[in-house]
Amino acid sequence: MRTMDVELAIREGTSKVDGDARFVARPALYISIVLGVVLAAYAYKLRTDGIFACSAEGYTSDRYLAYCHAKGYGDYEHGAFWFGLEPSTQDFARTATVLFLGNSRLQIALSTVATADWFSSAAARYFLMGFGYDGNVVFEGALLRKFKPQAKVYVINIERFFDQFESPPARTVMRDSSAGNQYELKRIGQFAHEPSCKAIPLICGSRYTIFRSRETGAYHVNGLAEFKKRAVSYDQTIDQAAAQNETEAAREFLSGLPVERDCVILTMIPYAGTKLGTANAIANALGMDLVIPQLDGLQTFDGSHLDQTSAERWSEAFLTAAGPRIRKCLDRQ
User: Which of 14, 38, 148, 286 has its CA 20 to 30 A from that of 159?
Assistant: First the structure.
């Protein structure tokens, strides 16, 4: 049968090769449909639960994506530090002369122009080494032991810093043997995220994101519209059990720092319901001052972290208060 006749017969369903032709054609069609569905589902998942749920408006040559508020991405900064995925970050942290430790409250409160300007005028380098998920001594103490910083001054946000608990991402990177590969994939994902979102912004969402400076550790946050502002307030009650337990852990940690005790500055970043009573009890038990400017009219963008205006005001006031001690320690050593 001629080719034209075969094609005509197949279209009309009269040829004996019709069944074979359909058998060949249908699997290819089915495979194409299945692949299309799989790819569409994967793209949808990336857009709703993965890195593409977050904006790329924060990347610079100095900043990487530290956190994307999406189920399929979440934390990156813990793995970036623990596994050395951002090597220059560890180098900057190791060689900073003033090292800040604590949680995300500390990160946001001091990621300001006021902080950058103060250290520029002092000709000193600083690094904010706080972490989200209530960053504390368990993870940050382990990091210090890993890369042995050369800091001459330590500033510690005392808010639950000496509480001996493992946050979920800290537990993952420190104990899960597969975590290295997971975080490497997150790192690789950023190479596609940045150019894709900048080329076609509509393919990316606007979830809460944190970008982090490799040089200073400072945060740059986006996607704050989903949160509700609350005023800063202070709670003067004392949790005696917490104060006792954290004081014991603090003594052990502070004894291992390679600086004089007066070059360790304790502070408390304010938020809605600041546990000031407990913090003062810990500082008093340690025989140390708590440097915490209490300014009127401070606001948080979510009840927990200072908004940008308040962070600028608070960080400037903090460095005015703590600055002489910092300079004294830098000059001494």
Answer: 148
